[in-house]
Amino acid sequence: MATALSPRRAVPLGGSGPEDVVADSRGGVLTGLEDGRIVRVDGLDDPDRTGVKVVAETGGRPLGLELLPDNALLVCDAERGLLRVGLEDGVVRVLADKVAGVPLRFCSNVVALSDGTVYFTVSSRSYPLKQWIGDLVEHTGSGCLLRLAPGEKEPEVLLEGLQFANGLAASADESFLVLAETGRFRLVRYWLTGPLAGRSETFADDLPGQPDNLWRAPDGPIWVALAGPRVGALELLHRRGPAVRRAAARIAVRAPFRPPGTTGVLAVADDGTVVHHLESRRARFRMVTSACESDGRLVLGSIWERGLAVCDLPGTVG
Fold it and tell me: Where's the Strictosidine synthase conserved region domain (predicted)?
């Protein structure tokens, strides 16, 4: 049973599409905007002291973010590939922009482990970000999971055939990764250690919506953004042949899009158990693509909106 997802306040950013949100150790939140800026937002819990500061510009379209211990930021840029951004000097460095000689496009989310290994997803090799709906409609299965080992210049493909590979998070002990497969409404576990290392399996299936970015809370669960509800007509279309799906995708990428009113977030434990399900069916803040905890609040990002939303964490009093 879902509980209500009710934002307490909106935080305008002076730009569109804060697709991913990550909390830093100072109680602030970092996010990337449609125009290429990466901003830090401080004072989220107090309108009188909220501040938005530009820390870098990628020159592309930043999506998934991952903070590093040395005060740098990993950025999945949908146009430029995998980037490393210095938060003190704003210097942007390309870590990887090709795989097997093919330019990296539509990089989606990223996680770094304690040994310096970086894992990241590519949502689609068939459609660019601006036509993302085409991939979900056609059901191309062209998403993938990649690994960039320390010192390497080109990533290795670990998993292919994913239906819109999206959010990524590591388990608390770094024995496996959890990956959001948006087009299959599920989370996938990819084992990094142990007898199943290198294998994947379903981690949480039949989710109530389309999973997007993932973020692990310190000493807590993995937050899963649900960008939209399940759509019966879309699931029926996925059972049709490739030609039918391609024709539907051509129409979808040209049609006006407005997100549905139903959106939500899940919190999932490392055993795959859903510990929280928050949902709004008449959301004013639509298409939640990310969620993180910051300063005792739940902060939501959206590729559709022009700001962030701040909510109470489950079990807290406003």
Answer: 114-194
Distance set, CA 193 to CA 35, 132, 148, 186, 196 (Å): 39, 33, 17, 22, 7
The pTM of this model reads 0.95
CA atoms of 233 and 248, how far apart (whole Å): 12
- Distance, in Å, from the CA atom of 181 to the CA atom of 188, rounded to the nearest integer, reads 7
Place of tokens 């939501």: 300
Give the other-Cβ count within 10 Å of 233's Cβ: 8
Tokens at residue 66, please? 């991952």
Q: Does domain 3-312 bear CATH number 2.120.10.30?
A: yes
Distance of CA 273 to the CA centre of its chain: 20
- Residue 278: what residue type? L
Task: Give the pLDDT confidence of 156-192 residue by residue, as tens digits.
Answer: 999 999 999 999 999 999 999 999 999 999 999 999 9
Beta bridge partners of 248: none
pLDDT tens column, 240-250: 999 999 999 99
For residue 210, give the nearest of 253, 248, 274, 163 by alpha carbon: 163
